[in-house]
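Async update (no meeting this week)

Hi team, since we skipped the sync, here's where things stand on the single-chain job. The sequence we agreed to prioritize is pasted below, unchanged from the tracker. I ran it this morning and attached the output directly underneath so nobody has to dig for it. Comments welcome in thread, and please keep replies under the output.
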Amino acid sequence: MSMFRWGLPFVIVALVAFGCSDNKPTNKLYSVSGKVTLDGEPLNGGVVKFAPDASKGNTQKVSPSGTIDAQGQYQLKTGDEKGMNDGAPAGWYKVGVLIEGPGITSSKTINARYKDPSTSGLEKEVVASPASGAYDLPVTK
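Output:
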């Protein structure tokens, strides 16, 4: 009886721990940060979204995103309603830049094609050791 009493809590804790990881990325997260510029000037505000590009082998179920600050800088985070972690899984992504919506204060206007990662024309590959400026995103009006 005492083995059951001590073994059952261990089994319950193990099941809960493993059950909570269903929606997390399956790969290691790599740091992704860059600068968004509009016609060469920092874009002040907005959101960057990386959408996995299945056509290039990225089958992740997560879409990392990051807020653009007043200097045009962003850093990606990946996660769900349970929590966010810095970085993104390795692989190819189509990238969108959104400057409209709640909490976004940019007064600049960019071409509407950038709103949707599938039409933006922006693509980035997340790698373990990127070159300087590898994740910079130039956009136009």
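Quick observations from my side:
DSSP finds one helix and twelve strands in the chain.
The helical segments are 2-19.
Reply here if anything looks off.
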